[in-house]
Amino acid sequence: METSSTTKTTTISTPAKLYGKDLSEYDEVDVDALLAQLSPEEINILAKEVDPDDSFLPPNERCSYECEKEPTGPLDRKKLIEHINKQALETPDLPENEPYVKGTVRGKKWLPPARSEKDKEVEEGIAIDMGEEYEQALTSATQEEIIDLAAILGFHSMMNQDQYHASLLNKGQPIGLGWDGITKSQQQKVYPMDPPNNTDIEDSIKRVKDDDPKLIELNFNNIKNISDEKLIQLFDALPDNEHLEVLSLTNVGLTDKTALLLAQAIEKSKTLRVLNVETNFISPPTIVALVRSLLKARTVEEFRASNQRSSVLGNKIEMEITELVEKNSSLLRLGLHLEFNDARHRVAAHLQRNIDRIVRVDKLKPNLPKLLMPACNKELPAIDIEILRQQNKQKLQQQRRNNQYLSPSPSPVPPDDDIDVEIDPDNMVVSGGDRQSYTPSPALSVHGNPPNDHDFNMHTTPFPPESA
What we know:
Elements: E1 17-18, E2 21-22, H1 31-36, H2 40-49, H3 59-62, H4 77-90, H5 117-124, H6 131-140, H7 143-153, H8 161-169, H9 201-209, E3 217-219, H10 228-237, E4 246-248, H11 256-268, E5 274-276, H12 284-297, E6 302-304, H13 315-327, E7 333-335, H14 341-363, E8 372-373, E9 378-379, H15 385-402, E10 420-423, E11 428-431, H16 453-458
Parallel strand pairs: 3-4, 4-5, 5-6, 6-7
Antiparallel strand pairs: 1-2, 8-9, 10-11
């Protein structure tokens, strides 16, 4: 048995209406034929009732109002405004139905809602017992003293700004303010403009090339007319200079081209400690190149490169900078805006470790030989080598007699002659030319705790004994 179904689709449309009347009967009416039957007066009346809503028509033709008076003359705007003001002043005010009487309330006056007895009891029940001494002091205190006390306790909302700062600076409270005082506007302090940087560029570059021992700090900040040729000459002279320690190049228009040359110069620099290249046009990859150059220099303790053309470095660049900083054991301060917390925390932790290492080296000065460490540029005092050799010789003789050694496989002892001392940033190694090198005992470790007399006498020293 087969079944079939049919579906009918009907469209329901709402007939157009005007003032409740159905307009469907006028659908077939010819509008042009109706307009042709109207007279000119009837067309004008119809035009006044209908807004054409055509932006191409001038406003005077779209407006339904038509002035039928004849023009009295050309338009004079000043006289027209005077006439309007005069007419407004001469027109009497509308009479008031009820005259105004001062002090009389018209209409309904707002009254705050009555407070319940429960709320009053809660407020009255709050009492703090501070003791007779404190209550007597607060009772006899003046209003200025109470305001000072509130400022000391940090109640900022109870006073204005003048009262708070006067309390902190101990200047005395302003007269006439009190608890309800309003801070008055004060005239803004005018500070003099910073003088321009009058550093002679040509002379400074010449002094850097000549390695002037008096030129320790070079400041080119805010000099905007430095050409790339001058910067290139300066960077070419940096590797051969052995006295310049501070170089400031803030807001000098440094670009990637010249910044890369600066990175190459930093790698060969011997004495540069502080480098500032803030507020320039250096891209993030070039900043990474500058930070990488600090690894080879091992002398730069402070590097600043914030406020560049690209305000956001990005996660990849920040991670590269973080890894490079963690490999640098001489950098103590870094001026860069890092957006990600991981990079900020890792960099801050590593810089703190570098600072702690310098502090430990300062504490170890009395017990270390006089050596120049490139990693931190710290000169350590000297120890009598002959005394150490005699002590080491006596200990070794005693060990041979008793057949007692410090370790099952003692490290080889280099000969006396031709000993070179090599320093790396993490440890001290004493080697003898091409011979086999060995590491000193923990008693003289740079990164360890300061050795005491007991440790110093029990461990072998890094100096070889005299040959028997």
